[in-house]
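Incident log, structure service

09:12 report received: a user says their structure output differs between two submissions of the same chain.
09:20 pulled the input from the user's history:
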Amino acid sequence: MHPITLEPGSRSFRCNPNYCHTVETESATGAPRPAGATPDAGGAGRTGTQSIERVVGMLRVVASRGRRGMRIADVVSVSGLPMSTCFRMLQRLELEGMVVRDAITRKYHLGPLLHELGLLAQPRFQLADLCAQALQAIADETQDTVYLSERRGVESICTSRVLGDYPIKALTLDVGIRRPMGVGAGGLAILSGLPEAEVAQIVEANDARYARFGTFEPGFVQRAVADTRAQGYAFLDSAATPGTAAVGIAFPPDNPVAAISVAAISSRLGPERRAQVAQVIAQQVRAVCDRMPAAGMAAAPSRRGAR
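09:34 re-ran on a clean worker, output below:
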């Protein structure tokens, strides 16, 4: 029997739980404005910094659907930029090897240059390698899908995924997908371990983006943080992806920069089993934390990009 995968539904892209990042730039006062907004009224062109922000934002948009790629109409919709601007940027990025366009599907994907640069950067960011044994052990014991999420500023990014043997799989994330912190059990676990003032700043920064995820009405994240702190682990059921639930625990406890979570169909994570799964994760998290100092891994770099 072939495994059945339960993935995000066919809702509009702006409601898709895989939605990653609407491109934004910041004005000189620090207030965000859409990427398609014109420069200040003084008539000066975009600064070099703003140009870099726009290019990076475009790459994030292309990456936001993982390995599925994006058609240019979706890029326009998500970025807020005019079609002509998106076309010119994507054409140039393709020439530089930073994106590629599939001749058959006409979808854009991240390109070979980013892969080559990533190979050079990989040794500096070894958490996924450090957690590999723990993720596999959790997948073997629970038979469900296990994710590693790491903090990136006000977002969390999936950096590793291991599949268990249970035939119905909750594939709610691809490796490389970013989501506002608090969307998903891993990001919620990280958020819940931070100081109250920092939680408030992150929730405020992501406020407009939470609305794009199903049940994330105002106040939902704050209540979920309180519940997580009370029970000692994060739990979400049918929050970003209907029909799926997940349990997550962040680490290290005093300065969380990552989290391990287990996702399954909702019926597999009732009250008794979710507590058992949390114990399995906690055991492996402790083993990972014991190895982190020996690996020379500092917590601070995972917070790069915070603002």
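09:41 both user submissions now match this output. Likely a transient worker issue. Closing.
09:42 reviewer note: The longest strand covers residues 145-152. The CA atoms of residues 138 and 281 lie 7 Å apart.
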